[in-house]
Amino acid sequence: MNFVVELLIKTMIGTVYLTGMVILAGLFLGILRTESIKNFQRSFGIKAVMITGFIGVPIHELSHAIVALLFGHKITAIKLLQRPNDNGTLGYVSHSYNPVSLYQQVGNFFIGVAPIFGGTFAIIALMRVLIPISYNEFISTVIKSLTITELNRTTIDGILISYGALIKSIFLLKNFTNPFFYLYIFLGICISTHISLSNEDIKGATRGIGIIFLILLVLNIFSLSKYIVASNIIKYNILIIGFLIVAIILSLITFFISLIFLLIKGLRGK
C-alpha cells in the first residue's frame, strides 16, 4: 500500500515539475488579462479590446493551430479575429484527433498552453528586431542561468538575481531614447493582453495532463523515470520561467496602464 502511495506521489511531483510552471503562469496571466480588459472596456468601450486584439488574437490562435498540426491534429475550423460574440470570443481554432494515439492526446496539453509559448516567442522575436541590445543582454542572462544543475540556497539566490537581470535588460536607459522601444512596448502589450488561456484552452490542456501523468506513472512503475535527469528538469523550468517573465512583466505594465486610464476616467466623471 505504501509503495502505491509513494508511486502516485512521485508521479504527481513529476507531473507538476513538467507542467506546473506553465499552468501557474497561464493562470496569473489570465487574471491580469481579465482585469486589464475590464478596465480598458470601462474606459474606452469594446474598441479598446479590438485595438489590442488586432495583433494579439491572431498570434494566440495561430499558436494553437501550429502546435495542433505538430501533434498530428486536424484543423477543422479557424478564425483568427472576429468581433466579440456573446461569450466574448475574439477568435478560435477547432481541431480533431485520434483518441487512440497517445502522442496526439499528450498534444492536447501543449495545444492548450500554446498561446503562452507562441506569445512569448513573438515578444522575444520583437525584442530581437526592435531593441537588439536588450535582446543580447536577455539571451546572455538566460544562457548563464542554464549552468545551474541543482537547487540550494546559493543557486536559488543566483536564479533570482538572473531574473532581475532579465527585467533590467528590457528597461535599459539607452532604450528610452530609442523610438522603437516604445513600439516594442505597444506591440508587447497587444500580444501579452491576449497571451493567457481561455476556459476552452484550459479544458483541452487538462486532457493532456492526464495522459502525461499516466505516462510518468508507467515510467515510475518500471523504474524508467531514473533516466529523466533531474538537472535537465531544473534547467527546463529555469528556461521557461526566464522567458515567461517577459510576458508577465508586459502584462503587469498593461494592467497598471489600464488602471491609470480607469482612474483618469473616474476623475473626469467627477
Q: Classify the secondary structure makeup into a structural class.
A: mainly alpha
Order of adjacent strands in the largest pleated sheet:
1-2
Average predicted local confidence, pLDDT: 82
Query: Helical content, roughly?
Result: over 70%
Report the portion of residues in β strands.
Answer: under 5%
Order of helices and strands: HHEEHHHHHH
Intertermini distance:
67 Å
Number of domains: 1
Largest sheet, in brief, is: 2 strands, antiparallel
Rg over CA atoms:
20 Å
Shape: globular
Instruction: Please provide the count of β strands.
Output: 2
Low-confidence stretches: none
- Note the total helix count: 8
Describe the fold and architecture.
A two-stranded antiparallel sheet has the order 1-2. With 270 residues, the protein is mainly alpha-helical. The protein starts with a helix and ends with a helix. The protein contains 8 helices and 2 strands, in the order H-H-E-E-H-H-H-H-H-H. It has one domain.
Nutshell version of this structure?
With 270 residues, this protein is mostly helical.
Ordered list of secondary-structure elements with their pairings:
Elements lengths: L1 H43 L1 H25 L3 E6 L12 E5 L5 H29 L1 H14 L7 H18 L8 H15 L5 H23 L8 H40 L1
Antiparallel strand pairs: 1-2
Helix pairs in contact: 1-2, 1-7, 1-8, 2-3, 2-6, 3-4, 3-6, 3-7, 3-8, 4-5, 5-8, 6-8
